[in-house]
Amino acid sequence: MGTGSRESGTGAAASAAFALRPGFVHCRFPIAGSRRQHGFSLIELVAVIVLIGIAISVVSLSFSKSMGNARVQAASRDLVAALRYTRGQAIVKGQQAALDIDLQNNTYQAPGKALVKLPASMHMTLLTADSEQTGQTSGRIRFFPDGASTGGHISVFMGQREWRINVSWLTGQVVREEVAVR
């Protein structure tokens, strides 16, 4: 008894159960605020997955809208290039040249070039001189050797968006502009 140890059998067993192991904090009773968490709760995981899903859907919706806009812009730029090519051919060759447009089939064709079809989600309208209308849903814009033209405009639509391509009758200048959303 002289060494200050308990002689009770339960005390020795209890002290053996709380033997110190390296790297562990040993306490008989939990200290307030010292509870350690291992991992995430189910609610936290579900909340993170929902937030990731919302972020992905917003990004994909934005991306699909911008892809649609890019397609319409590319189609209208190609049409502008075809009109400018047609004007250039009229000037270089010294003879009239016309860009043919078929609204029903959603196509156009520059002289000596392949027929170009717009995507199904797009459509065109044509305003040109009466003498240049070749049918109920087709017509052309004609350019003359001096660079002038019959004039008019072509609108390219996709959903609510519109790009208008104006052709000046006096100079034959071709200009593309985006029209405000309808």
Rg computed from alpha carbons, rounded to a whole number of angstroms: 38 Å
Number of helices: 2
Strand order in the largest sheet:
3-2-1-6-5
CATH architectural grouping of one domain: 3-Layer(bab) Sandwich
**H/E element order:** HHEEEEEEEEE
For the secondary structure, the number of strands is 9
Q: Which runs of at least 5 residues are low in confidence (pLDDT < 50)?
A: 4-9
Instruction: Report how far apart the termini are.
Output: 99 Å
What is the level 1 CATH name of one domain? Alpha Beta
Explain what you see.
With 182 residues, the chain is of the alpha+beta class. It has a domain at 73-179: minor pseudopilin epsh domain (minor pseudopilin epsh fold). The protein is 34% helix and 25% strand. It is built from 2 helices and 9 strands. The protein has helices at residues 9-17, 42-93, and strands at 97-102, 107-109, 116-117, 123-128, 133-135, 138-143, 152-158, 161-167, 174-179. The strands form 2 sheets. A 5-stranded antiparallel beta sheet has the order 3-2-1-6-5, covered by helices on one side. Strands 4-7-8-9 form a 4-stranded antiparallel beta sheet, covered by helices on one side. A hairpin with a 6-residue loop joins strand 2 and strand 3. The chain is rod-shaped and about 95 Å long. Residues 4-9 have low confidence and may be disordered.
